[in-house]
Each structure stands twice: as structure tokens, then as C-alpha cells.
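User: My collaborator and I are trying to settle a disagreement about how two of our proteins should look. Neither of us wants to argue from intuition anymore, so we agreed to look at predicted structures for both before our next call. Could you fold the first one, then the second, and keep them clearly separated?

Assistant: That sounds like a sensible way to settle it. I'll keep them separate. The first protein:
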Amino acid sequence: MNDNLITLRYDGLDADFHKIELSSLAESLKGASKVISSVGNFTATQKFIRKQTNQEIAVYATGAKANCFSVELIMDFVGQHQILSGSFGATFSVILMYVLNRNSAKKDEMRHLKDALDKAIQELGNKDKNTIERLLNTIDKMADSLKPSVGQMVEPIGNSCKTLNVSNNKVELKNFEQADKDFINNLGDDEIIGLKEYSVYITELDTINRTAKIYFASDTEKNRIIAEISDPTLSPYIKALSLYSHNHDSPEAEIKVIAKATVKQNKISKLFIADIS
């Protein structure tokens, strides 16, 4: 099982004192779970399944260690009725390394990784040229789709650590630093950010069309954007609006929501609110 062990090591800042701020660590582990299970599922089944609950591979934490601050994760089938093949770990490592580097600021290794990826696909038993090309295209699509999750992985950088090192059986797969985080956060127009928590103020609410105008609590300029609410319960949003109407910017009026977002010119342009955090 050592070949299926992934270590996330956080270094610098708080991590040097063997601790990590909990909310940023939770965000990082959530992103890592999505990335690792998606790549693991593809390696085991040669299928990219976006919804994590439908994947056949699950990711488990085996415990944190105080060498700076590191967390060990291990993969297994959800039903635990199958055994991962002996070649799984090596093939998984190549694909994960490719996905992480495709979403980082350093592109120097991509040509080398592309060659290694071709060989890894063949190791899965694929010799047909058309099949190999199709699977390589699927991996590129998977890597692009996982960009928001990679962004979650690196959330602690700059906040509670300086670097995040991802390794598999002591082999480094990727070392993230601030430049990588900045690159990942440089989102393209119309790009979708997966479900995340946001702290917002609601300034207007249309209960018929289930839309609202909001601004982020962290935005000192109070730029308002449109939000669509799919949450069947509107009462928390009505309460937040009422509190805001009585006392703008008061802590009581701030509401935490779980939402997807779209981006324009590297800024969130619209929220799609699913629930209250």
C-alpha cells in the first residue's frame, strides 16, 4: 500500500511550529481529496468521473505528522472488495504529477511529463494509437476541470505556510509556492469555481426570481454582483437582508454561503448559492 500513499507537507510560517490554520487546512484537504480521487479513479478505470460520490476510489487520511506539518493520504476502492494493481502507484504518480504541473506556474517539465504520460497510458494496457490519443485528451480535460480543486489545495500558502510539497512514496510530485498559487488564482473569463464558502452581505433580494445583489465581506469597495439562490429555504437570506437594512456592515448582517462562481477579468462576476455554511 506504500505505493498508494500520498504525503502533503506544509513548510514555513505556522507549519514551522507544527501547526496549520484549521480552515485553510480543511480547504486544502478538500481540494486534495477531489484531485487525488479523480486521478486515482481514472488510473483504475480509465474514466474521468466529475462527481466524487460516483467515483470508485476513495481517499483516506492516515494521520498528521509534526515534521513541519504533513498529512498522509491513502487510496483504496470505495467498497474495498478489489485490490489496486501493482502498477497502479507508478501510473497514478505520473498522471497526478502531470495534472498538478499543468495547473502551476512552472511549465518547464511539461514536455518531459508528456512523454512519461504517453508511456504510462501504454502501461495501462493501451496500445492502439486512437485509444491513447483519446485518453490523453481526457487527462487534459480532467486537469483543466480540476484547476479549482488544485486552487483549494494551495489555499494555506501565504496564509499559514510558504510551500506545499506533494509526494508519493518519498518521490516528489510537485512543490507548490506562492507563484504557483498566484498562477492558479489567475482565472480565465467564464471559468467556473467549484463550491466554496464565501462571506457576503445581501443588499437586495428578489424572493420570486430567487436572485440577490451581494458584495463580499472582504471587499472594501463593496462592489455588488448578482447571486442566484437554489437553496429551497430563503429565510436565512431574508434575515440577512433585514439585518443589513438596519445596520450596514454589522457582523450580524454578514452571512456565510456555499456557492459556485463565474469569473470575468479575474474577478468573481456571479455567485450561484446552494446553501448556508
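The second protein, kept apart from the first:
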Amino acid sequence: MLAENDTIALIQYTHHDDHDMYLCWQDIGTQKGYNCLFDTDYDDYRQFDIADFPFWATIIDKTSGTRVGTIRLSPDAIDSDLAIWIYPKHRNKGYGKQAFALAVRYIFEHFEHEEITAGCYPDNAASLQLLKGVGFQRHPDSDAEEINCFTREPTVQLGFRLSRGAAIVHSVR
């Protein structure tokens, strides 16, 4: 177990978790949340190396033992981006905010990162609420202009950052 609270636990992601994550990627809501069309077959999907990521956890509901999502830190040591996938039938139940908070605490306790980044699109109200609720601050210099792969219209991935010091202050509130 990497981290836990009364409700959820973060356990090390393994390839046994691939099926749930693959199904999540097939969900159109997930694809829109990441501005990407997912057209990879399962065998190709499973070709990644988990060890490439410094932190990758499966989110478990402790009451039911159910896998409810995944959270992962990018391997980029300079711009370490924290991303989350809550599986479709478990969304809007508070798992994301709890998992993000546990992951942030774990990362700052076990890695030397001075800050963590995250991003979301302006129309993703749940992600905006999650990031602000955990203490991430808007960082417009990190915004990324893109073309929405669904509408072909310009869009912006909003940049957010959380520093080690701000995370400590936020956690004691």
C-alpha cells in the first residue's frame, strides 16, 4: 500500500490493472477529458513499461475492494504532471479529490519534487474543482494551446501547479 485514508487506498499499479484502465480509455468522457481519440487495441495498449513512471497507483475503494481509478505522475522530472482517471461508473463520488490529495502527500514525502503540475480543459468542471480543492493554483504560463480533436476548434489546456510549501500549508487548513 502506498497511501490510504478511511475511504480509499492507493496501491502500486500493475499490469493486472490494465483491463480496467483500457476500458476507461474507451469511454468518450475520458477521451474528451484528455483531448485524444483512443483507437489502440488491448495488446498494443499493454506494451508500456510501468517502471518508466515514478508514481503510478490504482485507487481502491476500501469498503468494497473495488478498483475505482488510476493516478500517475509523469516521468518528466522537471515538469512532473499528475494525472488521474476515475473509471466511469465511479465518477462524481469524491474519489478523485481524495486520491489526488493522497498522491500529492505521497509524492512530496517520497520524492524530491519541489512542485507538481496538472492540467485540464476549461469545460471540465469536475477537474477544475478537484485541482482547486487540493490546492493547485492556476499557472497561465503553463497553458497549452491545442486543437480539440473532437470539434477541430482551438482549445487551451489550463496549467496548474502546486509547490511543496503550498501543499504543506494547504494540508494543515
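Some points you might bring to the call about the second protein. Helices lie at 18-26, 28-33, 42-45, 95-110, 125-134, 164-171. The chain has a mean pLDDT of 93.
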